[in-house]
Amino acid sequence: MFEKVLIANRGETALRIHRACKEMGIQTVAIHSTADEDAMHVRLADEAVCIGPPAPKDSYLNKAAILTAANITGADAIHPGIGFLSENADFAEMVEEHGHVFIGPTAEHIRLMGDKIAAKVAAKDFGLPCVPGSDGGVNTDEEALEIAKETGFPLIIKAASGGGGRGMKVAYSMEEVPEALAICRAEAKAAFGDDAVYIERYLGNPRHIEIQIIADGQGGCVHLGERDCSVQRRHQKVIEEAPSPALDPELRAKIGKTVTDAITKMGYRGAGTIEFLYENGEFFFIEMNTRLQVEHPISEMIYGIDLVREQIRVAAGAPLSVTQEDIKLNGHAIECRITAENPVTFMPTPGKIGDYHAPGGLGVRVDSHLYSGYKVPPYYDSLVSKLIVHGATRNECLMRLRRALGEYVIGGIDTTIPLHQKLIGEQDFINGDYTIHWLEKLMGLKK
Ligand code: ADP
What are the distances in angstroms from CA 259 to CA 264, 273, 403? Predict the structure, then answer.
């Protein structure tokens, strides 16, 4: 096992990884920008190295600085966390070339799944059901119009390198296709430096359902059921729950088996998530994330498995510590993503935290780097806390979540806590009756 792990991340993600390392007896090295000198991940780590100025490109995305930090501290392995360099195949390669272990899948698998066009082709080969659409990239108006005849309308044009809900454009008729194609390409080029796009049928009212897997690359592969991440704003997840109110044990076992078969065929090693849209009893693959995800704790809560621990173990060459038979669903979990944003306008609200009191009690987990006096910097993602609640039943979980949100005090800045309080009180949410459009319709952003 590793003796020392460098955590190439910040905020609650860095803390999450630090916690798993400490429980495994592993020393931790934090990296940080000059804006994060007082951050909790820096305070808790055994060692810390400042790697650059605030802008992510100069610090948390600065590959050379991170590798230098790993070299000078003698870290055996690097955990990239979530976001930043976690899906950067070049970085994974560089880490290994410099004699450290990359805690994640192989560079080859990251690269394959990072190109959404190639990923869809591969997913089909591995036996996953996909959204009907173009089999590859779409370059010209003529090609797009030809595919549109097959998919019908509406259709969605998506960037091959897209992520974070960006680089997508919906077209409702033939007339709209050329302009949508041009806009999507231009946006993709500007945001991702790559204007390759592809076309899919735009599903009318699906749920976003994803399957968590972890595999050891030695034949061991398990799934931890599904997460329902349909509560979204601008294609970004706001509340996630597991299990999904829309699935039953039979469907769960079926899609779980389809996914683990595909992952085994692929020879994948590491944690990963296969994302699907789910409509009228059918699953449609949209993408695979070759890393840990923000919402992983809800799966941990209902299956009792520490996913970061398993990630570290398999990266060190150990087999998975569990088989599918060991994995038993227990109760229900919901996560609220609490961000430093105005709960109505969603304007970012960086600033100094005043009073701070995190909720507690049975079944309550708070993954957050906040403390009283901490200054939320304006340079990074606005996620400041994840409130994760577990209950024996969905109803118990909802009651507990309401109680925990009511206890949570984050003073000094606006956060989205009031939004979460409102959402979980909505009758549709209580009924588990929502799709990917529900939140935006509720907010009056969509008809
Ligand atoms: P990203 O990598 O940016 O997260 P995804 O491909 O995972 O992009 O899609 C994000 C979200 O966009 C989905 O959860 C869904 O809400 C919406 N979406 C993507 N593809 C489609 C589609 N074919 N039909 C309807 N909605 C879609």
Answer: 9, 10, 36
Instruction: Say how far residue 294 (Cα) sits from the centre of its chain.
Output: 4
Question: How far away, in angstroms, is 286 Cα from ligand 1 center?
Answer: 7
Q: Which of 227, 291, 337, 400 is catalytic?
A: 291
Task: Round to whole Å and give the CA distance between 96 and 410.
Answer: 41
Beta strands of 234-289 (E only): which ranges?
Answer: 236-242, 269-279, 282-289
Kindly give the number of the ligand 1 atom that is closest to the alpha carbon of 237: 14
Annotation says 291 is catalytic: yes
Rounded-to-integer distance, Cα 394 and Cα 120, Å: 34
Q: Which of 168, 198, 207, 233 to mutate to test the pocket of ligand 1 (most atoms within 8 A of CB)?
A: 168
Q: Which residues, at least 6 apart from 90, have a Cβ–Cβ distance to it below 8 Å?
A: 63, 107
At residue 13, the 3 state secondary structure works out as: helix
Residue 226 one-letter amino acid: E
Q: Express each pLDDT in 361-398 by its tens digit.
A: 999 999 999 999 999 999 999 999 999 999 999 999 99
Complete domains list, the chain, with CATH: 4-101 (3.40.50.20), 132-201 (3.30.1490.20), 207-442 (3.30.470.20)
- Single pTM value for the model: 0.96
- Which residues in 165-258 belong to E strands, given as ranges? 168-171, 197-201, 207-216, 221-233, 236-242
What is the tens place of the pLDDT at every residue in 189-212? Answer: 999 999 999 999 999 999 999 999
